[in-house]
Amino acid sequence: MTPRDSAGPREHVYVSPGSAHAFVESILVAHGVPLENATIAAKHLVEADLRGVDTHGINRIPSYLARIRQEVLNPRVSPELVQITPVVAQVDGHNSLGFLGAHMGMARAIEMAKEFGIGMVSVKHSNHFGMAATYVLQAIEAGMMSLVFTNSSPAMPPWGGMGKLMGTSPIACGAPAGKTQPFVLDMAPSLAARGKIYKALRRSEKIPKDWALDGEGRPTEDPASALDGVVQPIGGPKGSALAVMMDVFSGVLSGSAFAGHVTSPHDPSGQPANVGHFLVAIKPDLFMGLDEFKERMDYLYQRIVGSARREGVERIWYPGEIELAVKEEREKGGIPFVREELDALNREAETVGLKGL
Questions:
Q1: Whether the predicted pLDDT of 1 surpasses 60
Q2: What one-character DSSP code corresponds to residue 51?
């Protein structure tokens, strides 16, 4: 790791991707996770950090380990896949790490899509699966389009309501391209993912006033008050409806928890999370040749980034392009952490006799 002055007022410590991966792998193995499964989890967590989605990177480790110690997340089991039809399968996560069931599900969806043109997998009895875009990237690496949905613990009211009921469940999808960047969308139906509020809390930072309401329904800049209250949906009723959609496809369909009954990864109550996921892989050359599809994707990219810009806008970014630029930078210079974040991770390492970051 290397300390450097950050662009902001606080110093960051930079950790190489390899060191981050080895740390996660070793600490999960020390808590009973089989090496093969720990490697999958580490890959997904470090990928989030590399792409600048720090809210879903290795800073999540303490919350996962807490649930393992509470015996509400089973570190030793592996997911189980059942084939339903030639193009549909279901994965039972058996309360394992969420990365495992989602990774297995997307791998099977890709296999079905290669043979039949499309593959759909529902995942039940899972846990928080990290950054949704990692499963989109898994499909893109195989030359596939994809849809990736999940539900999550209550954080947002239905439009017009006051209490937490719907999750800030991400909507992700993607498609490969030819010579340009692939299309990668990963967004929450809220103004900010709840993980960003936890990140602000870890770093003792304020949040924008429009992100959340406190327990009394008032806008707040305090992350602790925001976590006691609710986050705000994007586009008012539209964001609220998208959160309901995630619950339908991920929770209701799979047989997992839904309607506000998913347990938070930060919840100390001892209840299994019972998260559901919905994964689809699509062969992009179903209706035309692959070269033509890629040329059309390249044309779309050029049309988007080449659009006329408003005054003060230096560049128009394609979905997923900013994250790719951050990844290229962090692969060379390392992943930035503030000291408090590393201290929390290193305390976890000390409990099992491992070297910290």
A1: no
A2: T
